[in-house]
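From the thread on structure requests for the teaching lab: each student submitted one protein with a one-line request. Submission from student K.M.:

"Model ATP synthase protein I from Streptomyces olivaceoviridis, C-alpha cells only."
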Amino acid sequence: MPSNDVRNLAQIAVPTAAAGVIAVAVSAAVAGGKGALGAVVGTVLAILFMGIGLYVLQWTAKTLPQLFQAMGLLLYVAQLLLLLIFVAVFKDTSLFNAKTFAVSLVVATVVWMAAQARAHMKAKIFYIDPDSAKSEKPEKTGRKP
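Reply posted by the TA:
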C-alpha cells in the first residue's frame, strides 16, 4: 500500500476507532458487559467493512479508472445493505446487546464516511498530470520569422 494510501487510511480509521471507544464506554455504562461487547463487535465490523471497501475502491481507481464512480456508488450501497443485514441477523442474539451493537455500527459507519469525506477534501490531488506536460514539446506560438 503506497504511503499516501496508508496516510488516508489513518486519517479515516483513527476517528472511527475513537468513536468506537466512546461507544464502548457509553455502552458499558448503560448496558454493562454485553453492551460493551455489542459496541466492540459493531465498531470492528464497521471498520472491517469500510476498510475493505476503501481498499477495493483504491484498487479500482488505479486499475480501472473508468469504473471508479460507478464502483464507488455500488460499493457504498453494497456496504450499507450488508451492514443492514448484520443488524437484522443479530437483532435477537443473546451473545451481546443488540441495541448497542446496532447503534455503534451506525455511529462508526457515519464517522467513517465523514472522516473519508474530510480526508478527500484535505488531500492535495492534482487535477492536471504534471508529467504529461513535461513530456510533450510545446508548440511555438506567435509570429513566424
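TA comment: Residues 3-135 form one domain. The mean pLDDT is 85.
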